[in-house]
User: Fold these one by one.
Assistant:
Number 1:
Amino acid sequence: MRVGWLLIAAGLGGLSGCSKSSPPAAAPSPDAPVTVTVATLATESLDRTLAVVGTLFAKDEAVVAAEVEGKIEKTGAEFGDRVRAGQELALIATETYAALAHQAAARVTQAQANASSADHELSRQEILRKSGIASPADLDSAVAAADSARAAVKAAQAAETVSKLNLEHSHIRAPFDAAISERLAGAGDYVVAGTPLFRIVDDAVLKFIVAAPEADAPRIQKEQVVRFTVDAYPDRTFEGKVFLISPQVSAATRMFSLGALVPNAERTLKAGTFARGEIVLERGIPTVLAPLESIIVSSGNARVFVVSNNVVRLRPVTLGRVVRDRQEVKGVAAGEVVVTSGNSKLRDNLRVVLRR
């Protein structure tokens, strides 16, 4: 009897347990549509450019050297000074060269006096010879003396010209408008012709020298605009124009050099500065831009999910420039719809619900 009651209790307990359990939840369908955010691709007119890096150089630079020998009396410019063409930079033994110039002028005067006397004597001998008083030898002697006196005048004049040039060269002058980048000698130094005195640069116009791949050579022309930035002014863009294209490609790098002239009237930029920029190859080219969040990059490959009839297709694309919050893409067309959020839940050929 006891055993019977236990069996009945066990049965009731089993029925009680079955009545409290809930049916198992249904697993979500693997093909259920995924809700995604999308955007329609559009084109924007952009300049087609070539990215470049390079260095700014002064358009003109020179080492001003001594042209005469002597002691530097004084210098009239210092490192950092700006000078005009013809401005006096230094004096080298000017008193000595002035004295030599005066001496040469006096010798010219003396030689001219001697030549005048010789010409007078020659005229006298010619008259005497016509009268039969002077001998042919006397006339020949007078002719030789006159010729020698005239030659002496020319020699004295040449020496005077040299002395005047030396006096002028003892005043060291700037060859063009420039800034002094280095003073190499000072007052009291004894120099000879050719001794460097100043290093000067014309920074009113700079040269932006860069290298470009040989494959881009056909697209680069003179007068194309070059835009660039420098670290000193990260929020400012500077411009120049291509003026020099090297005719030779480097066998080591497969690159060729080119230069752009950059106006620098305010002297904002400094020679020797590193710069990053781009050459404008073509203007106003229609370009397809995709939102950055729509682009999937994995293992170096870029792809986007393109939506067509509420089904996504994974499309490989080639990336270009980033423009604000979008990037240039090739492989998709304007008007196509791409997924901008929910990419991580997608796979090729999956159905989606669009939420713009």
Number 2:
Amino acid sequence: MRLEYDILELRTSEPFHIARPSDPHGRRNVRVRLIADDGVSGMGEAAPNVFYGETAETVAAVLPRYATVMEEEDPFSLARIEGALEVAVRRNPAARSAISAALHDLAGKRLGQPVWRLWGLDPATAPLSSFTLGMAGPEETREKARQAARRPVLKIKVGRPDDEARLAAIRDEAPDALLYVDANTAWTAKEALGHMPMLEAMGVAFVEQPLHPDDHRGLRLLRRRARLPIVADESCETATDVARLVGAVDGINIKLAKAGSLLEARRMAEMARAHGLIVMLGCMVESTLGIAAAVQLAPLMDYLDLDGALLLAEDPHRGPGMNEDGSIRFNAEPGLGVTPAARADDPPAH
């Protein structure tokens, strides 16, 4: 197999803030293409995050090493390649997840089937996805909520002193929406406990990652005393983290950019289910190419947050993803079902 890659400069349609520092205007992701000897190719997207030690530059630096590992591999040897990549250069999960997605895309194209069908999954069982409202002042948040009021599920980034006013504004504009909140590690256990009565009064369904990723003791305390479910995101990167979190949280949020492969993401879901945990699938800010890989896993989940491509000013791809009403659009085309998006300067189709 031959590996090619290029950088995707993705800009959000408006500034997108969370509780910790990040670029509010966009992301630099990496598109990976694997070309087999017979000419069939598959694509995947790396959505690196500095919180997990990756950037577009680190992804680009490690891909040539991974390409060497795969040169003589059978593209269908998904598990063996996954293991070989992890041994070749440790960590780098976003880079490896892009290769995993490309391999699955290639396999599906060779077999003429969508990846979700190869796994025996039923799109009808996929839950609705949330749409995320980034951090802003109460009045700006009110306007964001007004624009998103028809969406059935909203996820709210919290961790500011004015969280209560912001959530009240959202409830005014979207009284029937199911609400999740995500603190992105912003609180201490004491602070989180103090916020719980307000969050309950606002009708929040669950709280995602309220504490520092390593504060398992605080998570256990919070879970004992809080009535709202607690879902781990930054605390849970791979399947080995799931067992350590049993008793500390009520659920986990899986992301391909953390897990390192579609196979590992599925292992995480299965392990969480075995321990009676809620299973959620999330995303980074990424194009439809990255979201399409996550969509293949959507029927395995209780909750979804696959809105990353909807946050973009311009999406370079089209294919599976989240619809305006929160439902998930699956591909009938083989593999991931992704094609380049038409550009304004493209000539008319004939």
Number 3:
Amino acid sequence: MERVIAHADLDAFYASVEQLDNPALRGKPVIVGGSSTRGVVTSASYEARKFGVRSAMPSVQAHKLCPHGIFVRGRMRRYVEISRIVREAFESFSPIVEPLSLDEAFIDLSGTDRLFGNALEAGAALKQCVLSRTGLVVSVGIAPTKMAAKILSDLSKPDGLLVLTASELRPFLQPLPVERLWGVGRVTLQRMHRLGITTIGDLARHEVTALQNEFGSLGPHLHELANGRDRRSVLADWQRKSYGEESTFEHDLELSSLELQRVLIAHGEAVGRRLRADRVRARSVTLKLKLARPLGGGRYPLATRSTTLDAPTDDGAAISRAAIKLLDRVTTRDRVRLAGIQVHQLQRDQQMQLPLFDSAGLESRAGRLNRALDEVVRRFGENAITRGLVHAERAAPTRRIK
């Protein structure tokens, strides 16, 4: 049986939600993100994209490209709420759904033709289901492989649907730019071009041994993808490999400043809430800092430090303490323009081994406190209560790392 894999991606998700909730914004160039000189675009409506505005673009540049753009602060809680409804819509078509982020997912539609018809009919029904439940449009690509489905959904934006069969796969891939493939980033692309590889077809025809010598194990993997061979299945029991929160500041912060510590505490608390909501715990913590030392081309040096905890945790306070302690391992006189926390080595609650000793009940007290905090946040929002902190001035909404 030929695999039928769909990739569904909501169009300009954050901006579309803002237009959905505020009819006055519909048809107008909406830019979600900070509007200050240090702001970053998180999402842009298609009306704004016509002027060249894109996600991750500095807000200053977005202002120049689209002077009449309407800047809106992000509302992550609302985006999560809509994302859950969309996920339920996807799961009404197949139990095998692999979410990639709040606004996109792979869906295995193999063997569902008796329920929803052929791939084209199923894709159209999926789009209509999301529209009727949320009022939002979703672009869908359907192919025998995950990679091709993802490419198709990108090409079908906005509000499109493209379907590819197995016999059409290689002819479709051959003329596409090689950077369409997963794993071909800026540096890899430059090396590809030096080898004369500019299209996926060029890569497919290149000698595997030469690719192995140039790119290591990535070379043969990319060669397989270029030839339409992608054996990866849609993983229904998909599990995040990491959780993270980061934000860019309105003003650069000193590495030793109390305000930077406050930011890390806020990020640690947010990551802890997300871990508890998904019933997982993390064993390692990574501190990410973007230093205020321009390298040219809008680039800045990154400093990262990691540590492994004695035991997995979902406690935001413990995560924050670990991140703040990692500041001592950063030796630089540069100020900081972005700070973030990521956690890794995740374990589900049911995989946890209970500690031999209870440390005088400290864990249980922390657990009760966290549950109380979670309930307050659920009812009144993420800014309703903090651990005695003042929120640092942000140049853009806090970003959740995919």
